[in-house]
Structures are given as structure tokens and as C-alpha cells.
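Internal QA ticket QA-208
Title: Verify multi-chain structure generation after dependency bump
Assignee: T.L.

Test input:
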Amino acid sequence: MIGVDEALQQVLLHTTVLGDEQVSLADCVGRHLAHDVLSDMDSPPHDKSMVDGYAVQATDLREDRAELKILEEVTAGAVPTHEVLPGSTTRIMTGAPIPPGADAVVMIERGVMDPARPNHVQLQDHVVRGQHIMPQATVMRTGETVLTAGTRIRPCEVGLLAEVGAADVPVTRVPQVAILSTGNELVPPDVKPGPGMIRNSNGPMLHALATQAAAVPLPLGVAADTPDALEHAVQQGLAADILLLSGGVSAGVLDLVPATLTKLGVQQVFHKVQLKPVKPLWFGVTTETPSPTLVFGLPGNPVSGLVCFELFVRPALQKLQGAPSPQLKTSTAQLLASQQVKGGRETYLPGNMRIQDDQPRVTPVPWQGSADQRAFSHANCLIRFAPRDTRYEQGELVPVVPLFQDP
Amino acid sequence: MIGVDEALQQVLLHTTVLGDEQVSLADCVGRHLAHDVLSDMDSPPHDKSMVDGYAVQATDLREDRAELKILEEVTAGAVPTHEVLPGSTTRIMTGAPIPPGADAVVMIERGVMDPARPNHVQLQDHVVRGQHIMPQATVMRTGETVLTAGTRIRPCEVGLLAEVGAADVPVTRVPQVAILSTGNELVPPDVKPGPGMIRNSNGPMLHALATQAAAVPLPLGVAADTPDALEHAVQQGLAADILLLSGGVSAGVLDLVPATLTKLGVQQVFHKVQLKPVKPLWFGVTTETPSPTLVFGLPGNPVSGLVCFELFVRPALQKLQGAPSPQLKTSTAQLLASQQVKGGRETYLPGNMRIQDDQPRVTPVPWQGSADQRAFSHANCLIRFAPRDTRYEQGELVPVVPLFQDP
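Actual output:
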């Protein structure tokens, strides 16, 4: 049995970045850039006004006041047609190009129009040369790299891509995640389970995890515990980038999954991880299908499935999508209640983390074991405990893995 | 001019929770529950085995060992048909019901089969009554509330909803966000701007913000600075729950937006907020359209639009969706570099926050003013500075607003 860190290293070792495609600006949020993006222009493209106001020669307001002749009005989208000479001014909008001759802008609120003197304005301001003007290329220059490959596109990156003309955005392809639940005991969520049966909550949960991680879920439903049923469904799943199976990997009578996977050419990388509340985590890869598929055989209970997804599948999805340094995102927090941990395997328990008195603190969520997925509705992180018999005291710093993190 | 806190209070005062609808488990992640959800069954539904193993009478292993006759094998989905009597055992799978008569389970690894004694197993274990058994209803009881109205549905809630049979999930309707950019100076992102023109980056950015906040964006494109064009587009936008306009709200010549909105029956709530890098934020509501519309007239530059969205529109979207306590989510962090702030208005500057030495710390991101949206690609939060001339020293605690936060 290998440890969590080594298992994750193995998973990432077998994971390669997907190919790329172009999508529109409306569809790119949450995706990862496949290439660097350069600016195709200076920003601003010209010396521009930062305010609505009057473009002037600063020397005209030596005395902090002047009456100037208005040459023209440059509205948004228009360009100045006159040079600003001594004694004159051009009224311009925020963002408009500074007219030739002008070297400062006076805010519109500082100007008073006198009905008796049409086309003139009385300005009152202590003017400094260059005021309210942003020089051309202050923010970026033509040809400069503004976003690098691998960057996850958030709304502010969308605005920047639009500004530099990247209307077709080169992004890494979205991973497809096939989801297959196994087990004769499973009924769909809309059916009342009979004796010995339970509802399939793993399938919908893994579907939601894939959706939330910006992947495309391919639900394959439930396969019965027979070699034929399983083989047929797994074969479909191997068309995806990732195949998540739940159930059928522990040492019980009907654990057919590892045998079926091996038969279909999936090479086992590991079968067990020193990890609570998960032990039988099967991981393998295939190279025979058109593109490689990462296959995770998750335990049958949803809590173990959730923990495996967060520890192994999420970092793999990040790497597939080209995230710069895919890894398990951990931080530390102060434990707000003592916790007894039984050793042997690294243990991940549900916790609720928040900033309190300017420090991250975490409270363990009361939890009935791996069948208790209800506890996780009060959790926002996993608390990691080392693989030994230990009592962790209140106030100790412990590592935490936030749940459902963006890459 | 009102302050940020009062402005947000005004926005939320005019915001009411949307109606509800039912969606499938596959579509509910990220949505908010419209009603409480009760469990329709006990969990577990019966005393169940926590491991693959042998159901026994604990007294049979008084000596920590015993050879027992195997009555039957209960695989997943099957139910026991025999009572476990002294001297006998039933082999069961994880999750299977405990057979009548049994009061403990011995893990499968503790059993040895002797080929000479078919249908018998030699068990070796120090058995405690009840071991590896989870009693019926440990996790939840029939009729118990397991999730409350307003809860945001994450993947772990999806699993729980499936478990309790909530296959049709009652959720608050998704808000529709109409997005209208205004300005004669705007060209689409795929066009190279001519003199005086700039690309419309606000539209795509607001589209992405709406998408990322789990709303449905309704892009209305760019309206020219003419009363007719604006009126036509605004009228379309008033069919949505929120209308975001960008540009056209400051005191310049072509700022037609407030006049047009008033003409179309949108009642102004406020026009300016004491806020940098935003001042002319217009907010109003209409009650004449089929359902109320919140109308935000955002400044024309994308950075101001982003700040307004985070401070006002995101909390409004949360309230529309029924989030339990919609508000601006702030925390505090230690400032890693000094920062001079000019007073008059509350100021929000881009920052990069991270946990370092177990404490949240934030570095101001160098920033060229409101035309510099590039700086935000290095930011993950806004740092809030009070409305007065102050130099903030390295090491001071400052309030921060994380960007793009889930509700």
C-alpha cells in the first residue's frame, strides 16, 4: 500500500495535458489558456483623457483660471480635428484622445459656461502638466504577453482578452469524465429502495463534482455485478479522458471491477492507498483507446468517493486542463476542538474552516463514518491527520484541504 | 453621495427572492434550495455491516477464536434468509443488513477457510458486541430535515439529495442578467479599433461574471449613444431580473442612460456612491414589467464595472437566489507593503491574498488606474481602504473582499 502523496504523484505522472481548441469569449470562463496571449495594440492606444473635461495648454491656467474658446466637442468614438492653441480648449469625454497641442485636462466640474459668451468656458483649476492624461501604452504595449499559457480564465481575464482582441480564445479541451456506478444493491434516486437496497447517490455526486470542476460528465448509469454488464459499460467509459467507477473494488465476493479493467487493457498502477476513509482505491491507465484514459476505481460509499475525487481526481483534471502546477491545495488552520485519531493510515475528516480573529481555524464536523454523507453538508474542508495513533489538541495547527476548490 | 455599505443596503432592500422550480439532480449543483428537504427513510435503513466480513454472535468468539458453519452469503442488494445461531455465521458484504441473531461482524481478513471443512470458516478476532455494525437510523431518521431552504447545493449536497430520494430538486429560479454596453466608441472584440475607438471588453467580462455567479447572461450587445437605440435596448433588458448597463452614467455630454431609464419607468434609488475607482454608479428598480428588474448603470471602464459587480451585483444575485444571508463577504489580511490612499471616498484596490505562516496576508497589485484591467489578472481580492488620506503601513490588518466568491 502506498501513501497519499505517492499515489497522487503516480496519478499525475500518468496524466498529460489535453489538446486545445478555440472557443468564443462567451464560452471561455473557467477554461485554461492553451497558449500565451499577446496584446495586438497599445493600451491606451493614444494619450487619453481620464475624465470628462477640457483639454488645455497648462500654461493657459498659470493663474489657476482662464476663459478659453471652445474649439470643438470630442464625444466618445470621435477624434479631435483641431489643435489646441493658447487661449483655446476642446471639450472631451473620458477615454477620448488628447487633441494635438493640449498637455492637460481640466475636469468638467471646474468649468462654467457664461450664456453671454457662447463657445467659451471659464475654467478654474490649479493645473499640472499631464494631469488627467494617461500616456499611450501605459498599461501594455503591442506584442507584449499579457496572459500566459495555463492561466485559468476568470471574468477579469475575459475582459482583458476582449481588450487585446483575442475574440477566439485558445483553450485546452474540456476533459470528459465518464461516471459508472456498480452494484446490484443500487436503485435510482427516484425509487424507494427495498430491503438490502440503497439509492445510487455516488453517481449524481460524481456528476456534480465533474460539472463543478469544469469537466463534462458522461453518466453511464448503474452496471450490475456481472462480468458482461460491467465489461460493456467500462468499454463505453474508456472513450472518455477519465473513467470513474464506484463500487466493486474492495475484497468482497462481487468485486469484479479490477478483473474487468485488466481484461480490457487498463494497466493497474495501484490498488490500495494508505488512506482513511478510503482504502481500496484502484487506479490504472489505458493507452489502447484513441487517447489515454485515466481509470479510478472508487470505493462504493459516497464519502470515500468524494475524498478520492478531491485528493486525486481534481488534481488530475487540473493537469489535463493545463493548469500550471497541478497539486493538492492544502493550507493550515488551528484546530478548535481536540481530535483522537487511530493510526495506520493517513486520515481525512470533514471540517469547517473559517477566518476568526484574523487566523484560519477549523472545527471537526461530527461524523458517523463513511456512510454519513450528511455530515459533509456542514463541512467546507478535509482535515488531514498523520498516519499514527495521536490525540490532536485544541489549538494545534493542522493541514486542511478546502473542498471544491477552483484550480 | 452615499457610502458603500448604505448603497449595498439599498440594493438588497429592493431585491426579493425569485420564485422556484424543480430541476433534476444532474442540473442542481450551484443552485439554492427553495424548500427544506426531509429524509424519506432511515439511514442506514437497517442495522448494517460496515465491512466485508462474517456476521456472528459475539459470545461464539469468547475465546477470540472459533470455527463456525457458514449459513449463506449475502451479497450487495440481497437480504439474509437465515438467523445466525450459536456456532454459525453468515458471510456479508459492506452495507448488507445484519442477519437476525447476529450482534457483531468479524472482518473478512480474520477468517481462514479450510479446504477439508467446506462451508466452515475459522475466525480469529477479539470481538466486541456491535462491532462493525452501524445501527439503523444512525445518520438520519425518516422525516428529519436534512437540508434547509436557501442552502447552496454543492456536490456533497447532491449526494445527500440522491440518498434521501429528492430526485426532483426544488430550487430557486436562476436569475437572468441582461448586459448592455453603451457608447459610440465601442467596437466588438474581433475588430481592430480605429482612432478614438476601443474594444467592448465590458460586455464579455460582465457576461463571464454572470455565468460564473450561476446566473443566465442575456447579451444585448452595444447600443449607440442615441435616445432611440438606447431606449429600444433597455426595453429588452427590462425583461430580465437584472439589467447591467455599462457606460453613459457620468456627467459627460452623451450620458443618456439615466434619462432613458427614468423615461422607461425605472425609479432611481441612487446615482453616485462614495467609492473609488467608481463614482457614477446608478441604481434603480422597476415594478412595471412583469417582475421587478434591478437596474445597475455601471461606469464605462471594465475595472469599475468589475468592482461594482463584486460589491453590489453579486450580493443582489445571492439574495435573488435565496442565499440565507446575502452580504459582502469580507475578511481581514495583513498588508505586505505600505500603501498611500487619497481620501474622500472608500477605495478598493486589487490585491493578491494568500495564507503565509498560517496567516492571511495581502500584497497590493501595482495598478495604473481604472483603465488598467490587466492588473486584475494578478489579483484575487479587493483591498478596502477607509475614506480618508492615510498611509497604511506594512503589517497592518486591512479588510479584503475575495474576488469571484461562491455564495
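Spot checks passed. Residues 318 and 326 of chain B are 6 Å apart (CA to CA).
Status: verified.
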